[in-house]
Amino acid sequence: MIPKEIVKELDKYIVSQDEAKKNLAISLRNRYRRQNIKDEVMRKEITPKNVILMGSTGVGKTELARRLAKITNSPFLKVEATKYTEVGYVGKDVESIIKDIVSLTVKRVRAEETEKLREKYYEDAVEKVAKLINELDSLNDEFKNNLMDDIKSGKYDEEYVEMDKSQYETRGPIIEIMGYSEKNDIENVLQNVMNLGDNKKAKKSKTKVKDAIEIIINKEIDDNLDMESIGLEAVRRVEDNGIIFIDEIDKIAATNSEGRGEVSRQGVQRDILPIVEGTTVITKYGPVKTEHILFIAAGAFSESSFSDLMPELQGRFPIVVEMNDLTKEDFVKILTEVDYNLIDQYKNLLLVDNVEINFSKVAIERIAEYAYEQNCNVENIGARRLAGVIEMVLRDIMFEAPYEKMKKITIDKKMVEKFIKEDKEEENLDKYIL
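and the corresponding structure tokens:
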């Protein structure tokens, strides 16, 4: 996708923040450009221009990164910088970020391969189940085809067949040991222990046809999945297309105060630096080079500034974007123009219980206005404030549902004002509670 198309796609889910969208779109397009350079040496030399997003909570930092990854179907991982400790301290070390994104990608690739194999082995599974229903060897092709068509249509789903499940049992669960390395074969020992019970005596039991098909397919998939190839593909995807979103990076920035906390923050920054600069991390699926992974960092920077980060780390995030606080007009757009917006979500939720709700234009504007006021007067939590206000307005309606017959309710400004008044009275009472 060209940058304008990427921005257009992001506009469907995130309001405002044009500068951030433009920079992220360029970063994404540059990745595509690099991969299509014919000179291999040049291709390796070009590294991503990492982005840092500065702005209050709830303005769309995480959503931008998440949607960016979804647009391109890229491996994506969101981490919080404060969850990590420097090497030598108890807690998660920074290298586990790469291990985690590889593990997630392996699951995705495995799911894709599983779907391909499911289609491949479905026909065989249906035929095997058909033989359990009726011995097909003595039947003509027409009867066999008709029986298999009936099974596929679901006609026999709830019928029972007798089968020996033990021959279709898949391997035991894979146990992962923390701190696993090639020298440590505890994982293999435990896996062998899990498989000790494989040689069981044949024992037939009654199973529903639809479950029997799944059991047979899962066994075929388990036997034919090439986990080595899946691991290699996952590593390739992470190296070429991975996106890692580091949230709360401002919390590990150094401040003027001194103490052990400051040393720890500096240590986490030092450990993050080589990962962002480009290094090789050893994972159970093979070595992963990080130099072409796109890193997007974010933080509010309310108590620190970008310049409080280590100079070397600042240099690895050359694109710094300040995001705007959301206005009342932005909130109205979020409630009406964004795909799968909150109002549409609540409409669909209540339709399940025979309630059809509609919001008048002025009601939506008043909800947006009150959410904006609360952000200004209480605490700025951005677009997240809207969910609380709408929940408050719809609380009684959601409590009274369901109804036997369809009930239509229009949310007007008067109804919104009623709940806003009650909410303000509760706030005033809170002042007197010790």
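(Above: one complete record from the training split.) The two ends are 57 Å apart (CA to CA).
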